[in-house]
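FW: tagging you since you asked about this chain on Friday. Here's the raw sequence from the shared folder, copied in full. Didn't touch anything.
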Amino acid sequence: MGHLSTHVLDTMNGCAAAGMHVILQRMEEQTPVTLKEFTLNADGRNDGGALLDAESMATGSYRLVFSVAAYFQALGVSLPDPPFLDQVPLDFGIADATGHYHVPLLVSPWAYSTYRGS
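HL: got it, structure written out here
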């Protein structure tokens, strides 16, 4: 049974990115359609579990948008105006609707990385 999840780690402070706002979108002919908006819990994950469960998983192109600058500003980090990283969009594809897709983000105010996790 397929599902989609994410997890965000704050590499500047060495902790989960609790309180970061995230948007999940499906790309419909290059136009983003918002499926869900949520705030990360104390573990840096969605409180509701999977972002897409087995019933809502579908092949296609998706985007997760992470509100990086707002998260670090809320922690009192002094950022330039405009910030180096503001919204971080991660575009990815789901080729197998029965697969498990985990999209983690490791982030600081100056850098980020991602990969297909397990």
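FW: The chain has one domain: 3-114.
HL: agreed, and The beta strands are 3-10, 15-16, 21-28, 31-39, 60-67, 87-94, 100-107, 112-114.
FW: great, closing this out.
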